[in-house]
Amino acid sequence: MAKDYVSIRVSTLRGDQKIDFDAYLKIDEKWILYLRQGDSFEGTRLDRLKAKKLKKMYIATDDENKYRDYMQKNIDMAYDDKSGKDIKTRSEIIQGAQQNNAEDVFEKPESAEAYGAAKEASTKYVDFLIKNNDAVKSIIALPNLDQSIAHHGVTVSTLSVALAEQLKMFDPKQRQLLALGGLLHDFGHFDSPLKIARPMKDFSKEDLEIYKRHPIEGAQKVKDKNHMDLAVTTIIHQHEEKCDGSGPLGFLEPQIDPMALVTGACNAIDRSMTYEGNSREQVVKKMMVEELGKFPLQYIQTLGNILKTI
Ligand SMILES: [Fe+2]
Ligand SMILES: [Fe+2]
């Protein structure tokens, strides 16, 4: 009998742990064994997949439980401060797990379970970032090789928590929602025909119009999802607002939700790095000059200091 296969996300396959299942690629309707049971996804193997923008791999349906165990073991180990693993490996796994949580909600926004898992993980994530000195640094340093919206979400979420921590903003509950909102802020881009992974100067007038609508469309799509928190849907709705009123809704600084504004500043920074192709050094300089007045100066200066340490 022919084997049955089920897809798994590449973002869950990080770290140095050996897999106890075979992982396949699907090419031209054929199953190609890519990584054997007993191997690990360390280093170049994973980078090669990501560079090809490959998001899914496959396992035999019979191996599903083994895959779930692998994933859980990996995540538990990465969050365990006493596991003895270095911060780089832990960050890689946790970054992948957060990316997976974002992808899950993007694909199944109607699932209260997917949202609940992402929300629960956000508490652990904030804790990890705040308790481990080099966590922010090693998460941000991971390149977004496939320029994915989910990876961008993890970066924005991370910078938002780091900024809130530095400026002593928000209580722990709010920080959890800030982290979750940052992760999901670009829900409006998911499934959009617009190619957003390129510099804004290459956008046509029509492209820009579509782009401008993504926060409103994103908010529209989650309006009836009662399992989502208002703080999160507000971030989805308002994260492109600017202090000078130049955002899609035209809100001025006092009208913008404080968590959405923090997310917005971090989003502008990562958009500039990931999609405009600017280096970390260039980004802050550019923001100070070209985007003067769009975000509180203190946010940009603080984010500049955070980026300098990477
Ligand atoms: Fe956005
Ligand atoms: Fe964004």
Account of the protein in words:
- This protein is mostly helical and 310 residues long.
- The chain has two domains: 1-85, no CATH class; 87-308, Hypothetical protein af1432 (Orthogonal Bundle), CATH 1.10.3210.
- It has twelve helices and four strands; from the N terminus they run βββαβααααααααααα.
- It has helices at residues 44-51, 64-79, 87-107, 112-131, 135-140, 149-166, 172-184, 205-222, 230-238, 258-275, 280-290, 297-308; strands at residues 5-9, 23-27, 30-35, 56-60.
- The strands form two sheets. A two-stranded antiparallel sheet has the order 1-4.
- It binds fe (ii) ion (2 copies).
- One fe (ii) ion (FE2) binds at residues 152, 185-186, 267, 271.
> Per the principal axes of the C-alpha atoms, what is the gross shape?
globular
The radius of gyration over CA amounts to: 19 Å
The CATH topology annotation of the largest domain reads as: Hypothetical protein af1432
Order of helices and strands: EEEHEHHHHHHHHHHH
Comma- or semicolon-separated keywords:
4 strands, binds fe (ii) ion, mainly alpha, Hypothetical protein af1432, 310 residues, two-stranded antiparallel ribbon, 2 domains
